[in-house]
Amino acid sequence: MGGKRLMVLLAVLLVAAMVLAACPQPTPEKIVETVVVTKEVEKIVKETVEVQKIITKEIEKTVVVTPTPTPEGAYVERAYRQAIFEDLTTTNFWSAYGPDSTVWNYYVLTNFYPSLYGYSDQRFDWVPSLAADFPTELEQEGDYWVSTVKMKEGATWSDGEPITAEDVAFTANTALELKLTDNWEAAYDPEYLDRVEAVDTYTVKFYFKKKPGLSRWQFGSAMAPILPKHYWEPVVQEAKKALEGVDPNDEEAYNKALEDARKTLYSYVPEGEPSGGAFVFSKWEKGAFAEMTRNDNWAFKGQHIVEYANGAYYEEVPGWYEFCAYGDCSGDTVLDYTVGPYVTSVLFNLYGSQDAAVLALQKGEVDFLLNPLGLQVGLAQQLEGAGGFKVIRNPSNGFRYLGFNFERYPQDIKEFREAVAYLIDKEFITQRLLQGAALPVYTLVPEGNSFWFNPDVPKIGQGMSREERVNKAVELLKAAGFTWDKEPKWDPDKRAVDPGEGLKMPNGEPMPQFEILAPSAGYDPMRATAAIWIEKWLNEVGIPAKANLTGFNVIVQKVFVEGDFDMWILGWGLSLYPDYLCDFFTTGSGFNVGKYSNPDFDAMCEEFLGETDINAARDKAFKLQEVLAEELPYVTLFTAPIVEAYPADTVQFPYTEVLDGIQNMNGMPSSVKLLK
Amino acid sequence: MTRYVLRRLVQIIITFFLFQTLTFFLLYAQPGDITDQYLLNPNIPPETRERIRAELGLDKPPYLQYIQYLRNFMTGNLGVSFSNYPRPVIDVIAERLPRTLVLFFTATVISFYVGFALGKILAWRRGGLFEYGTTIFGVTMYTVFTPWFALMMIWLFAFKFDWFPTGKFITPSFWRDAPVSANEVFHRMIYTGIAGGVVSVIAYTLLRRVPPPLRYVAGWLSVGIGALTTIAPWLRSPLGPYALDIIWHMILPIMTLTLISFAGTMLLTRNSLLETMREDYILAARAKGLPEKVVRDKHAARTALLPVVTSFVFSLAFAIDGGVITETIFSWPGMGLTLLSAVTQEDIPLAMGAFSFTGILALLAHLVADILYAYLDPRIRYT
Question: Which domain holds residue A507?
Fold first, then answer.
């Protein structure tokens, strides 16, 4: 029996040891040094003066030693190691920008392909990249709308070949001729773009079938990736063989031939493909890591970028070019840095879980974690507690929302939607329930997208108490003709709502029970929590809502395919240019699943999408936001910031405040400095 | 016996056909398809999604898709993976299978060996501290929350002690200039493992003819010869250090898998052996005055081995599936994660391909177990 007891005791101790091991106490990094303090004391004795040397006892003193700061600009040249969480699926960019468009492919492969225009750092101004300046105004030339872009002379691919207008035309025309899908179709939209021609070595001309707006031209084709013609031409020619002898008028046969051609193109495994970016792809060890090494022929190496407080943008590559736009390039600066690359290569190490990657980060095996969702809150706290890590939080360009089905009465009644919006306490959800892990969102353009965000859009319900919300909702519903058998009232004694019962719609019929589809807690605890509380708040005023927490695929299927739903809660990741406002709510759009229909809004969208002037487009985007805030086809709920962390004594980024976090800049491989 | 095997093979084919049918329609019954991802991308117009659906054959009715799938399967064509478009499924499986096999086969063999050896000792030394201690430890490990335990192992041995890497199957910095891919080394490891096993068996069979006093030595000699066959080619090979790097990365996951799963075999062996020990022939062996070790290993253990061998053969078959948790925590992407992502992304061809491999191996494992039964237990004869 004694043995048994001993075993039980041992088992308990084992379990306790495991639990203790699981809870490591974070300790700040400090150096304890023993200091011998020698103190001379003058002791004054009456009448006689004597000096007595007293040696105090040895004491232990804790001194927190701050590492000597690295001199400004000093860095070590080594590989920059980033953790990724899913493997690449291809190294063929035609495929990666097409059917294999995963974020993990993007993180690696988008480093190699230049574009005519791009976004500036932090502010996301539209600025020339390979283009020498802004394009010419769109003008009509016969049946086409045309615009010409002059390219910078001197940029080369990594193999020394110049990057020319031929490369631009080749990439665009290949996408158009082979009807490449996915992002290619968005970049070179065949509904608008007819062809691209190289006028001379460094001049390229875009021919549009109809006048394109900013989204199709400036933020579309002009920003699309460019691939090296001299490398890909034989592969594309091989792919096009599938089209030989096939009559384009025979739709079925031609589509089949196009499919075969695309398959040939996507299947090609590139080796030694030249790069037009700061790095060249060098190795992919499937399931383990990918690597890109520094491109010593990169023309933009040492590029100096300055952003001014007055909104002006300046960049230069000494001895090559200077460029200034958006105002007077002088005065106070908000960003000033020089592009590298300062690292010899970039390693993308594959990890199966964030936990393992965070341990690797703490151990010094990786320098940064690339993850579109950022760090989990618990892991960020773990790193904060460990010391030596800088944890950063950036707004994300996306939101979670509640959508209405306008084909289901009474959701088409504006006051009903407004009442729902007032009842949803976003501050309570984000601050109390989600403990600050999310931020409330009031407009369809998140605040982080500062250029397009309209700060004057009314923030429904912000700062209101529960009582005020309930009273306002009841007032709105009454105004729309809703009635109750028992009207909901705020009970000041109980500090709660005395729930309403028997809600009747303006047509006199009892309000039927309806469903709010939302992702289950396993998929997204934030939306699941929000859905449960929304159900509760609606029920309080007698609206018979029922949250149905279900699989993400089920919601997508019901809402976007079958159209069999009442309300739903999902989220959107957004583009910077807010043409999604029109995609989501224009009559007849495939993404307008709630079937919101407003001819005025449709007309405004048409104007916005056709707008070619960025400031005029901004004004129109502001108006669209105002209309949507009033009409409420969606009630935007909240957004989760992107949390990231890096070892502050090892990694130095030129800036860390950026929409969607550093991951959105691929971890800044061309400008990061490694301090040790 | 031949008739029995043939009959079983026919049964296996019918069962496999039913398995394929059920799996296909279960996968198809999931809401939506892989092109649902485009529904949430405003850059992809609905017409494009329809075109992609048609390209992948998803616009056809399920029964037509199934017939097409079966037709392709019969000709050895597993189709094209939707999530790795346009890579053939067989390519994706061939890429991920070797690393799964090397890790999970090794872990399964070690775990069974440890479990079987401990089970024998437990049954023979009942009531002692060793039995209680080992049983409690084994059961604790068997029921421990695997993700937590695996993380603890990494935290302790990789992070705190720095003895092993935190995950992955290779060290990127070491492999940057490797002359071959990791899969090439995995392939060679598998070949040498098979060669070592075959040589061991042949050596053991030949050396069994050695007279009894030397037979014990013969056993160890066969193991030694097998080990030498496995290791010798690597010693002079330029790929030796790369194989060593993989083995170094295998230690922690294998330790974890062994600790988690050895108790199952241990308890099975113990119980089976306790049953066997009650048999009359064990009493007779003892009455003859045979040493305890001989009674245990030669008389009792062989009979007790039957259920353990069955369990072992099945485990080997399912090792092809890998393990989602192990692969995730130890960053060892293999068949487990492939299967999971194929199912969640509704990549039906890839999921069907992975399931087909598992199904074939599981069914063959049943056949092998039945044949092994007859070999291990002379009382069993199939007609």
Answer: 398-575+634-639
* Dihedral sign for Cα atoms in the order B27, B30, B33, B36: negative
Q: What percent of chain A has pLDDT over 70?
A: 89
Assign residue A485 the CATH number of its domain: 3.10.105.10
Hey, what are A49's tokens? 């003066």
A490 part of a folded domain: yes
Closest-CA residue of chain A to B139: A11
How much is the CA Rg of chain A, to the nearest whole Å?
31
Q: Which chain B residues in 112-171 lie under 8 Å from chain A, judged by CB atoms?
A: 128-129, 132-133, 136-137, 140, 144, 148-149, 151-152, 154-156, 158-159, 162, 165-170
CA distance B181 to chain A (A): 7
pLDDT digits (tens, 9 = 90+) for A25-55: 443 343 334 444 334 434 433 333 343 343 3
Give B12-68 pLDDT, tens digit per residue: 999 999 999 999 999 888 887 888 777 777 667 777 778 778 878 888 888 888 998
Q: Are A593 and A517 contacting, i.e. CB atoms less than 8 angstroms apart?
A: no
B332 touches chain A (CB under 8 A): yes
In this complex, the residue of B51, B154, B168 whose CB is nearest that of residue A350 is B168
A21/B166 touch (CB, cutoff 8 Å), yes or no: no
Cα separations in angstroms, A109 against A104, A277, A497: 9, 10, 56
Residue A332 inside a domain? The answer is: no
Within-domain flag for A434: yes
What is the pTM assigned to this prediction?
Answer: 0.84
Mutant choice from B27, B37, B41, B139 vs A, greatest count of A C-beta within 10 A: B41
Per-residue pLDDT of A129-180, as tens digits, reads 999 999 999 999 999 999 999 999 999 999 999 999 999 999 999 999 999 9
Q: How far is A259 from chain B (nearest CA, A)?
A: 7
Residue A164 CA, distance from chain mean position: 31
Q: What is the rounded CA–CA span in Å between residue A403 and residue A425?
A: 16
